Amino acid sequence: MRDYDYFSNFVPCSAMFSRTISEIMKLKRYAVAASFLITAASLFATTSDSIQQKASGDHLISFDLEARLDWQMVDQNKNFDRSQSGFLGKYIALKAHGQLTEGLTYTWRQRFSRTPKDNTFWDQTDILDLNYKFGKFDVGAGKQVVLIGGYEYDRAPINLMCPNLFVSNVACYQFGVSGGYQLTPDHHLAFQISQSIFATPQDRNLYAYNLMWRGGRDISENLRYESIWSLNEIEYQKGKYCNYVALGNKLLINDKYTVIVDLMTRSYPENKAFKNNTFMGEFAWNISPKWKVTAKVSYDCNRGINLTDKTEVARGTQLVIGGVVAEWFPIVKARHNLKVHAATFCSFGDNHNAADIMQKNTFYGSVGVTWHMNLLNIK
Fold first, then answer.
1. Shortest CA distance to 181 belongs to which of 34, 328, 324?
2. Which helix (H) or strand (E) holds 187?
3. Considering only CA atoms, which of 126, 138, 158, 128 is closest in space to residue 50?
4. CA distance 365 to 347
5. How does 239-250 read in b/e, with b if 16+ C-beta sit within 10 Å?
6. Cα-based distances in Å from 263 to 18, 142, 250, 279
7. Which residue, of 104, 199, 258, 358, is most buried by count of CB atoms within 10 Å of its CB?
8. Residue spans per domain, the chain
9. What is the spatial distance between Cα 263 and Cα 276, in angstroms, rounded to a whole number?
10. What is d(CA 118, CA 298) in angstroms, rounded to the nearest whole number?
11. Does the pLDDT value for residue 373 go beyond 90?
């Protein structure tokens, strides 16, 4: 699962290439894909600030606490779900990040919300990553976010509001190594080898090969396009791979409106293309610095044949989720911020994963508070 089961509680979301011919062919395919992405990136080159995520400047250590508390109501097919309704502690975590020396930074985030699936300390460790940047290159190692495209996937879990089924179920934090290159100030290309998102305590020897491009371009003075695209080859059984194409697209309009379209398809050797997909569309209106309203709809489907249960969207599922979120930011400061939200979502279709809250004819409502606090800075 991604970091935690979003609606109820929390579920936890170093490799070598094989010397076989099939692995060599995979590398060739990635080389072709990299050429395509580099070419696309050059077409969008601009001179604005880099969108590559950065660590904490010149601080040796910066400590933060983040938490979220909600009241929620769940009604499935006109049956009020008392077990999923009421006050819930959604999220609490400590974050530390800083710069050890010139170019060498670290990031650590530790959750303190446990479930039966959090069997070890490492299951609650979302990120523990060292990154070294030299010139336009960067390398990293540790527990990382698996590089998969899309803006809803890219959000911090504490900020997710009724995400699509793929994001709700993907085990997005895995051990791995990565390398990247800053093509231009607006474009970054990265390659990562990580433990597979389908790895289990009984079989950890599964790997994923991930290629990601983050890009952006100022189309006009009041219009900017940004993207998070990825190609992924993920081992779900030893020697068997599924392929993801994930295209996250964002338009920023007048610094007031944001339009996001995420497109993703997942294919397995036994299935035809476009049988297993996730699509998400979102429109956000920044009414003022303290008010924001967002409307969102997502569609998940898996019409593949039943050869493996290793998939984030259960086979036979075709589910639409739609809703609206209103957010108020009474405190927005450099070191602290507070957010109050109210959200309502509904779903229709079929979901063959009984563990998901959003099922056929489900209504979900939520009111909650989220806060981020900077506890300590040491230079």
1. 34
2. strand 187-195
3. 138
4. 12
5. eebbebbbbbbb
6. 31, 28, 12, 5
7. 358
8. 21-378
9. 11
10. 28
11. yes
